[in-house]
Design a protein that fits this description.
Blueprint (H helix, E strand, L loop, with lengths): L1 H18 L6 H32 L2 H16 L6 H11 E9 L4 E11 L67 E11 L9 H15 L4 H10 L12 H18 L6 E9 L2
Helix pairs in contact: 1-2, 5-7, 6-7
Length: 279
């Protein structure tokens, strides 16, 4: 606003000086006025864009709709193509740090999210108008990075969201020039421990042996009887040896231990929640 006032003051001064014939020729006056008018228009666009962005961030309904759609995308992520998944992750993630604890055999993931607030996320997040009580209300999401704007108005029947807000002005030249670009981001860290990022390779035959041994053991058979059944049915150990009781026990115990290890789950820890603002 201060910058705008200075430019307006300069325009008034220019007009006065022109009226007093203080410029050497008409072209000097026109050139100076043209530059000041351009600066005034650019500054006004910045001011109106900032106002529109702040007003949009205060739209409670838009927040609820955006969060609902974002949750839906994350839940149904399998419906996205690999390219769209990469694009989606690129837009919401800042970085992921992975480390491994050999003692606990756990991977630690430090996931740093940077969520563009009320963003269309390159069209991945779409508004569902049927969830609106007022279907005529225009809902606009902010433009995600590298997302082109092709329309300035969206009807209630369309699921794509324009990221351009139209404003009235004295000369009408600001229409369709004020875009809602993402400058506000929700930042947070999610620390998660996982036991499933790495698993020892297990062949189809090894899986068959374990499933068979486990089923027979659950039925009350001893490892001696299980080994005898394996030999009677021409099943060898993974290394090609005839079955003995200790083989059946080893396959059963090792795989069961592996299952229990990889079945461990941990609740994620959310830290460092904040807002990142790009000037």
């Amino acid at each position: 606003e201060i910058e705008k006032a200075k430019i307006e003051g300069a325009l008034i001064k220019t007009e006065k000086e022109n009226a007093l014939a203080q410029y050497s020729n008409e072209e000097v006056y026109k050139g100076l006025k043209r530059e000041l008018n351009k600066s005034l228009t650019d500054t006004t666009i910045k001011i109106e864009s900032a106002r529109a962005e702040l007003n949009h961030l205060n739209d409670k309904d838009a927040w609820l709709e955006w969060l609902d759609e974002l949750a839906s995308v994350m839940k149904d992520g399998q419906e996205l193509t690999p390219i769209r998944k990469r694009k989606f992750l690129d837009l919401i993630l800042s970085r992921i740090d992975v480390s491994h604890d050999a003692a606990t055999k756990l991977h630690r993931l430090d996931i740093k999210f940077r969520l563009p607030m009320l963003s269309d996320l390159d069209g991945i997040v779409k508004h569902n108008p049927t969830k609106n009580i007022n279907l005529d209300r225009r809902v606009k999401y902010f433009q995600s990075p590298k997302t082109s704007i092709k329309s300035t108005y969206i009807s209630s029947e369309n699921t794509f969201h324009s990221t351009v807000a139209k404003f009235s002005s004295l000369d009408g030249r600001l229409d369709e020039q004020i875009s809602l670009n993402n400058r506000f981001y929700i930042t947070l860290n999610v620390v998660y421990f996982s036991a499933t990022l790495w698993q020892a390779p297990y062949s189809e035959y090894q899986q068959f042996l374990f499933d068979t041994i486990n089923e027979m053991y659950q039925q009350g058979n001893s490892y001696i009887k299980i080994a005898q059944w394996m030999n009677d049915n021409n099943h060898l150990t993974p290394r090609g040896s005839i079955f003995r009781a200790n083989h059946a026990w080893s396959i059963h115990m090792k795989k069961q231990k592996s299952i229990n290890r990889f079945a461990r789950t941990y609740q994620p820890e959310i830290t460092n929640i904040g807002i990142d603002i790009i000037p």
